[in-house]
Design brief:
By secondary structure, the chain is mostly helical. It has 23 helices and eight strands. The chain starts with a helix and ends in an 8-residue tail after the last helix.
Length: 480
């Protein structure tokens, strides 16, 4: 294999398995066999990856629980004030948590772990207004995202964020709530058509009593558990929640469903059934080892086929994080990252529903594409941006930020804000080889193969900085 071919392979690998790669790192890794490069991504040093931002809200969280203000209807003025303060506090910490994770992705030395966390964040989509619970679920996905899928699934299922979001707190003996049981099979493991309504009912009975205490720790409430005999997928027994999960994992359809989701996220929006079967068989036979699944994917020849290179639309998170990593961007007012996420349609920790973000072509419409093409020059040259339009109308955090941005509004009162970011141009340019041509820089920055139009547009008499801004502002830069 030629050095140029390996250069392209490693670049593709890091665009999909991470958020891009620097030129010196790409040059160094291109000298290695691709399987060794994959080993390096997967076999990272053991260390604590957790986000620990939310650690001082416990007393205020307990105040919220004990006050019962959310459930109470007729509040005194003092209680109304207390509830407003609690909600404001939660919104502020939730914004901080969002920014902390984005910053972690921008600065991480373990790009695959964060990319897997992003994948599981969409797969186990969950909205929760308690930032401590949201952080806990994010850390579960980070810790187990490359380990045992069974462990990941059990820990997610026991997390207070998911138990609350899918109403398992209300799932009690004699009054089963089927919401979690349904989504466990439909969205998290098997997919539609691979279970019956009776399987949902019996599964829900098995998860009765799964709850959490005032400290956010999982607790099994025996008095609320239905300990009667259940029939689930033809098996009969006094099943509890983990028994249900084990039976679900016995079914090869689970390995196929997860492998298809992984394929669509990391390879191509258009599934290839033969490749998915190859992945699913390997995943199933490895007893659901996620590390083994990803190794199989990244070392498969078809992963590097032309139809799978430069053909996926970057998610808003991938776009913003990749741009920020590439050019060593510092955000002086990190709240702008929340505005950008919301405007582009992927506000992390706030999926549209339990199915998560649809992805693919859904990331792009006429307005979001125009905004995407403007962002690089605004971020890299610190410009002004219009944030009217795409905010989640139910999200108080975004509404509050839009009001703040209105101080910079123009005469027709559309909210505008300065991005207030700096790219470290000397640092970026220093990563490039001496004498690198604008055309070679373009080939490095873009994943799709260059066409005649792009080649003609990039003239050798342009500076590398102006070339970089021009190229990142093109539609082709939205593909990875």
């Amino acid at each position: 294999m030629s050095a140029k071919d390996n250069f392209s392979k490693v670049k593709h690998l890091y665009n999909r398995a991470g958020f891009g790669i620097s030129y010196p790192e790409l040059n160094k890794l291109s000298k290695k066999n691709i399987s060794k490069v994959v080993d390096g991504l997967l076999e990272e040093p053991k260390k604590d990856y957790a986000i620990t931002l939310v650690n001082d809200t416990e007393s205020r969280r307990q105040m919220l629980v004990q006050s019962g203000l959310y459930a109470k209807k007729d509040l005194t003025d003092d209680e109304k004030k207390m509830r407003r303060e609690i909600v404001q506090m939660q919104n502020e910490v939730s914004r901080d948590l969002n920014i902390a994770w984005v910053s972690k992705m921008i600065n991480t030395e373990s790009p695959l772990r964060e990319k897997m966390t992003l994948f599981w964040h969409g797969h186990f989509a969950c909205r929760n207004n308690n930032p401590m619970y949201a952080q806990q679920l994010n850390n579960i996905q980070r810790q187990h995202g490359l380990g045992s899928f069974r462990t990941l699934l059990v820990e997610v299922s026991k997390s207070p964020a998911m138990l609350q979001y899918l109403n398992n707190q209300q799932n009690k003996k004699g009054k089963p709530n089927e919401n979690f049981a349904r989504e466990l099979m439909e969205l998290f493991t098997l997919g539609r058509g691979n279970y019956t309504e009776n399987d949902i009912k019996e599964s829900a009975r098995s998860f009765t009593g799964w709850s959490y205490d005032k400290d956010g720790a999982f607790i099994f409430r025996k008095t609320q558990h239905d300990d009667g005999t259940k029939t689930f997928f033809g098996k009969i027994g006094n099943f509890e929640g983990e028994n249900i999960i084990d039976i679900i994992l016995e079914k090869p359809e689970t390995a196929t469903f997860i492998s298809k989701k992984v394929y669509k996220f990391f390879v191509n929006d258009n599934p290839n059934d033969a490749h998915i079967k190859e992945l699913a068989d390997h995943f199933y036979n490895s007893k659901y080892n996620i590390n083994e699944l990803m190794r199989k994917l990244f070392t498969s020849e078809w992963f590097y086929n032309p139809e799978n290179v430069g053909t996926k639309i970057k998610s808003p998170a991938e776009f913003l994080i990749g741009l920020s990593r590439e050019f060593f961007v510092t955000y002086n007012k990190p709240q702008v990252l929340i505005q950008l996420q919301s405007s582009l349609g992927q506000y992390l920790f706030n999926p549209p529903n339990v199915a998560g973000w649809p992805g693919g072509q859904n990331w792009i419409d006429s307005s979001s594409l125009m905004l995407r093409m403007r962002i690089p020059s605004l971020v890299l040259n610190d410009g002004e941006i219009d944030f009217s339009g795409k905010a989640d109308p139910e999200d108080e955090a975004v509404i509050a930020l839009s009001r703040i941005a209105t101080t910079n509004a123009n005469s027709n009162n559309k909210p505008k804000s300065y991005v207030n970011a700096q790219a470290d141009w000397p640092k970026f340019l220093d990563t490039l080889p001496k004498g690198l041509s604008p055309l070679a820089l373009t080939e490095f920055l873009l994943q799709p193969k260059l066409n005649d139009k792009i080649t003609k547009m990039v003239s050798d008499n342009k500076g590398l900085r102006s070339t970089a801004v021009e190229i990142t502002s093109m539609p082709e830069y939205q593909l990875c």
